[in-house]
Design a protein that fits this description.
Layout: H1 5-22, E1 23-26, E2 30-36, E3 39-44, E4 47-50, E5 56-63, E6 67-70, E7 74-77, E8 83-94, H2 97-102, H3 107-123, H4 128-133, H5 135-150, E9 155-166, H6 169-242, H7 246-256, H8 275-291, H9 298-313, H10 325-354
Antiparallel strand pairs: 1-4, 2-3, 2-5, 6-8, 7-8, 8-9
Helix pairs in contact: 3-5, 6-10, 7-8
Amino acid sequence: MDPVVIPILVAALVVVFLVAATVRIVPQARRYNIERFGRYRRTLQPGLNFVLPVADRVNTKLDVREQVYSSDPKPVITEDNLVVNIDTVLYYQITDPRAAAYEVADYLQAIDQLTVTTLRNVIGSMDLEGTLTSREEINARLRAVLDDATGKWGIRVNRVEIKAIDPPNTIKEAMEKQMRAERDKRAAILHAEGERQAKILTAEGTKQKDILEAQGTQQAMILRADGESKAVELVFQAVHRNNADAKVLAYKYLETLPHLAQSDNNTFWVIPGELTEAIRTVTTAFGDQSSAAGPPVAGQQDSVADVADRDKDNVGVPEIEPNSTLALDAVAAADEAAKQAAAAVSDAKAEAEAAGETRLPGR
């Protein structure tokens, strides 16, 4: 090999080495701390950078993005002397690469220890219930303490979250019993409220039912009374239209009396006071028919004379003989009026039943 070529190759290798040692390419979101002869010189920014070979060297490479650090559970004593295990999640970001590299030896360990001591100070002034229900307050106090302490380290704490709070097993069992008792209490209250509401609704339904039944009975009685009133009115009109005399009316009166005792519920029935007068009228009528065959006695002559005198006073009102055609027509009219009255009562009862109203029991 030519002796001249060897020095050229050596020089080329030296040049390549020097160029490689001079050029530094820093990725995005990274920061390189440069030391010159062991002393901090500057921090390289992302992109192409040049340094002095051999004199300058990269001491630390730092990531300036926001990072997450999860600590292990740490035992903490509450105000009511209960030991709980608490683990936290820390969100931090390096804002000053020089301070993060030269102000603290291990910033993660420092933050972890600071978090533990701050938690013990904060939770030591709270009881267990306050610890479980005051996470936002604990997070805010932790963030304030950590942000103030890590500022000189070139680190900004963005957020601190308590990931879990684990009380002792005995406390967990007691809490479960308490929650179970609360649920049983709420269930009993809801059950009692349901029964109360059901009884109220049942009472309201019974009340409405009684009111409707009373209204139905009232309407039935009104319709029945209207039917009976119409029936009596028809009978009255038929009697007066056919000009029935007192003898026919007395006969129909006696004919109706047996119907008063036909009901099964009647244990006794009252004979009206007009019964004797009706019997006397019928007896008189049959007595008049028997007197047609022979001469009347002295007493009868006097009664005939009295009747004649009354006939003279009531001029224009003809007397109906028992065997005459007018008397028979009067009896037929009375029968027809009774049938119409019964039909009217039946129609009234049918209307009441069609309206769905309750009938009163027979007395």
